[in-house]
Amino acid sequence: MDFISQPFNSLEGKITWQSPSNIALVKYWGKYGDQFPQNPSLSLTLSNCHTTTKVEYKPRKSNSKKYTFSFLFEGEQKPDFHPKIEQFLDRIAPYCPYVLDHEFIISSSNSFPHSSGIASSASGMSALALSLLSIEKERVGLTEEQFLNKASFLARLGSGSAARSIQGPVMSWGHSPFIEGSSQEYATHINSGIHSVFSDYQDTILLIDKGQKKVSSTLGHQLMEKHPYADIRFKQAHQNISRLIEILSSGSLTDFITLVEHEALTLHALMMASNPSFILMHPGTLEVINKVWEYRKETDLPLCFTLDAGANVHLLYPKSNATTIQQFIADELAMYCQNNHYINDQIGDGAKKM
Which of 39, 93, 129, 241 would be 154's cystine partner, CB 3.0–4.6 Å? Predict the structure, then answer.
């Protein structure tokens, strides 16, 4: 698909987007080329964990080839974020040449702790991509489908998982023969064939460690290039995508739990088996996993966990069981969280223009 913008005169204005994080059920781990995934992934879009980004823009006075922008995070200047933003602008400039014609003031804030394991790059990069692309939409005109697909395409160039944060509640990214319209370039909105039990699914995020991850996702993906189990994993992910599509349609929570938890543990097993190897779980992570297994065996309630590349735990369950399960979380699991901090979230519909 041709995502290259038509030229237009510089504008002045401001735009604000709020974009959510997402949690992958089938993980993508390993990439190639220009931010393409080695295997497809499927995620739930969250609601309460989001980034709000305001972009103020005006015609640039300088003829320098460098970008002109400042970045504020939570109201403070953050020059250490500049290299990542410059890299993002470099990647999108061939498709959005107007980023060289404007000066930007980018102001961003999170509803959750930065680097807490809640995929802040996904919400942050998708919010920035949407804000910048809105300049083009205002001037050139894009259909809703063109806008959403290009926003996902641009977000992917900043952070792979950001491609899945544009829409919701269920998104796939990466080509799969089992998902019509799936693409390596941008995420696909799965808006039909989803059982009603998943329509208001809950995600409570246990913040076992709010600190910076020991291993960046970029490094983790690179370790898959020579990983001894890479080919087997990529094949497994394709099979799990097919199976998960069936599960989401049938509403089988038993099968959902089995697949989602196995995917989470596979991700961490891949990191432990890489060279160099990493263990990103903390003792509290393992304690929570064991308590979830015990609780499910004792109560037969459909509570399950998933993990991203970090120590924190996402607990997934139907809204109909929320009162009972959240009491269990408060009584038995909060003690493993840093400062007893956890976040109750639920699946959502994607980004919103503010």
Answer: 129
